[in-house]
Amino acid sequence: MLEDFVGEEDILLGESCKDWEDAVMRGAQPLLQRGIIEPAYVEAIKANHRAMPYMVIAPGIMLAHARPECGAHGVGLTLMTLREPVEFGSAHNDPVRLVITLATPDETKHLKMLEALTDFLMVPECLDNFLAARSVGEAMAILKGDEGK
């Protein structure tokens, strides 16, 4: 189901980022390039994270997002794995290995996408396999649930 919301252009594997701000910017690039978000949306993510680092939602996972009115024009989701984990300032969930960037233009259009993402993240094997993926094709197969077929 998650593959319905994430295309090959939305997957970034083994990225090297110097710090959390660089990781947020890199994870947002595919959405910026397609006009789904504006640069102001990325700055809002950074400002929100500086104010309260609640977006590191689980051990090793950052869900980067901002309010729709901060510059989101459509629904979008990117998944970026990091070559070297990055500290985001979360006492309980650092370091981060997976940066997920979510955009939505309103309060409801992203709900099915968020449900599919939650279902995916709740299966430890799926997450582990995704983090180990060496190619976008392999990552897409994992999202589709047919990596072993």
TrEMBL record:
Keyword Phosphoprotein among UniProt keywords: yes
Any one of the GO CC terms: cytoplasm
Natural source organism: Selenomonas caprae
Family annotation (InterPro entries): Ascorbate-PTS_EIIA_comp (IPR051351), PTrfase/Anion_transptr (IPR016152), PTS_EIIA_type-2_dom (IPR002178)
Subcellular location: Cytoplasm
Gene Ontology molecular-function annotations: kinase activity
The keyword Membrane appears for this protein: no
Protein's name according to its UniProt entry: Ascorbate-specific PTS system EIIA component
One GO-annotated biological process of the protein: phosphoenolpyruvate-dependent sugar phosphotransferase system
Function: The phosphoenolpyruvate-dependent sugar phosphotransferase system (sugar PTS), a major carbohydrate active transport system, catalyzes the phosphorylation of incoming sugar substrates concomitantly with their translocation across the cell membrane. The enzyme II UlaABC PTS system is involved in ascorbate transport.
Gene3D superfamilies, per database record: Mannitol-specific EII, Chain A
Keywords: Cytoplasm, Kinase, Phosphoprotein, Phosphotransferase system, Sugar transport, Transferase, Transport
Principal location listed in the UniProt entry: cytoplasm
Stretches assigned to the PTS EIIA type-2 domain: 4-146
